[in-house]
Amino acid sequence: MEFNSSSPRTIPVVSTFANPFDNNFDDTNSLTGVNGQTRKPIALWPGMYHSPVTNALWETRSKTFERFLDPPKDAPPQSELLTKTPKQSRTSILYSFSADHILREQYRDPWNEVRIGKLLEDLDALAGTISVKHCCDDDNTTRPLLLVTASVDKIVLKKPISVDIDLKIVGSAIWVGRSSIDIQLEVLQSTKETSDTSDSVALIANFIFVARDSMTGKAAPVNRLSPETEQEKLLFEEAEARSKLRKKKKKVEEKKEFENGEVNRLEALLAEGRIFCDMPALADRDSILLRDTHLENSLICQPQQRNIHGRIFGGFLMHRAFELAFSTAYAFAGLVPYFLEVDHVDFLRPVDVGDFLRIKSCVLYTEHEDSEKPLINIEVVAHVTRPELRSSEVSNTFYFTFTVRREAKAMNNGFRIRKVVPATEEEARRVLKRMDAESLESNKGKSK
């Protein structure tokens, strides 16, 4: 199947299993259900690793995958860059939750909403498809580019996402640099009460992909982008401003030294932590040490979790990081958390099949300004550990923000989340860095 850039299409998503009560299903191990219907054994109900979205996207990109997996020998790189429009890369996927029972069950969380971790994985897979569409030169004699997730700019949940109502994700390239592509995705869900398009946006995400030459591994130029509509031009300008801001922040961080004001902030953060360490009986009962909020998972990265380039899916890493962050917030608050956003994520190094991955999470700090909506800021750090080499490198750092569900809070009138305090200078620096990043984002939003 070749991409037809002139007519964007919606990719339907179906469950990875047929209906368990499908009479056409023939299996000697099947069981007889109600009304004499043939039912699949529970072992064959939802549970495959790859999500239905990933399966649908891989099927749609099948010929492109063949080119990636078996490129022509000594194929030359793309000789001339093309100019494409956002419309040519625009792709949408449709979850028919209302009609597909098994699909619903694959995405349902305990609160009858969509599993956010699984959705993050789907967003990364769709962004990958869009980057391929934008970079494709429709010439099978040239070698394809290696496209990888470089970072996630931000993911913001605007409203709860029900698992009983059809869902659509729409995305396209909105800006390109020399070798980078900014892709914006919108998760849409409409009800009879919210038929207005703007009101149907449930989540917005921005992914940054970078292109590498598949033979040399060096940065490779990507096709140009020419926005056509006023909205596309606005998104292009906003993405360009974010790119400049990221570069500016990086330069500032490289040059920044702690001045007296920063030292004072560090000291203020550490003061309460010292009481916990030196005089624990006198410490504030409404506070807790940062180190006492830690949770950790470990896993060996399996072949089933790889992408077409043999590396571990960025979406898989986000999925696992989110699940650990959610658990950390739950264990900390004592009430069911509610996800709000993922802040900027950098994919610092690739994760390979067979890597020993350790994912560590903690509550970095909490915010109490709005008593109805207290904020829990979670840091998740993924380390690629190599026992043979006695080495451990950070591959990703994620920052998730949660609050607590209103219905859970309403049942506990005396609820109050505890203040988190650092005990070491290294912890205090991490907290200050995160607070400054949040403050910068907030000020940027107010200035728009």
UniProtKB/TrEMBL annotation:
Q: List every stretch annotated Disordered.
A: 68-87
Record's keyword terms, sorted: Coiled coil, Hydrolase, Repeat, Transit peptide
Q: Which GO terms describe its biological process?
A: acyl-CoA metabolic process
MF terms in GO: fatty acyl-CoA hydrolase activity
The protein's matches in Gene3D superfamilies, at most eight in alphabetical order, are given as: Hotdog Thioesterase
Signal peptide positions are none
Q: Does the keyword Repeat apply?
A: yes
Using the record for this protein, list the coiled-coil segments as residue ranges, or answer none: 242-269
Q: Which PROSITE patterns match?
A: HOTDOG_ACOT (PS51770)
Q: Does the keyword Ubl conjugation apply?
A: no
Where in the numbering of this chain does the HotDog ACOT-type domain appear? 93-215, 291-408
> What family is this?
Belongs to the acyl coenzyme A hydrolase family.
Its protein name is HotDog ACOT-type domain-containing protein
> Organism source for this protein?
Populus deltoides
Q: What is the lineage of its organism?
A: Eukaryota, Viridiplantae, Streptophyta, Embryophyta, Tracheophyta
